[in-house]
Amino acid sequence: MSENHGLDADLLVLATATAGVAERFLDTVREVAAGVSPDSSIPLLLLAVSDLSAAGARLGAIVDIVPAERFEPDDGPEGDLEPLRVSLANVLEGIDEYTEVADPLVSPEVSAGALSNDLSDIAQALSVGLAHHRAGNPSEALWWWQFSYLSAWGERAASAMRILLSLISHLRLDVDDDVAGEAEFDALHTGG
What is the pTM of this model? Predict the structure, then answer.
C-alpha cells in the first residue's frame, strides 16, 4: 500500500481533523458522564455536538469515500459503551428524554428519544472510526465516519443539538419576570 493509504492529501487532512474532533467529542462526553463539571454539562455538550456536526457536514458534502481495502480490517474489539450510556442517563436524569418527529420528510409520526442514547450511539460510531485511524487505516476510518454519519450519527447529532439548544434556551430565558426586570434595569443603568 502506498504511503498515502489510498487517499489524496486533502482527504488525509480531513481524516486527521475528523479524528481530532472525534477525540474531543469523546473526551467531553466522558467528562460530562463522570460528573466532572455538572453546572456546565449542557453548554459543554452543545459545543461538542456542534463541533462534531460541522465535521460531519464536511463528510456528507464530499464524494463517497472508497477505502483502500474492500473489506473492513479488524482493528481490535469494539468498546462497551453501555457504562457511558448509563452514566449519561444518571447525569441527565429529568432532562434526558424527549420527543421528536421521526422523519419529517416521510411522516409526521412522533417518536421518543433520549439524549444519553444519542450521545452514546454517536460515541460508539466515532470509536470504530478512531480504532481504524489509530491502526493506520485512515481511508477505512474516513469511510466509516462518512457512512455512519449519513446512516446514523448525523441524525442523532442533529437531534442532540436541537435538544441541548432547547435546554439552554429554557435555562436562560425561562426566568421570573421580576428577575428579568431587575437584570434589565441593572444593564440599562450601569456605566457600561
Answer: 0.82
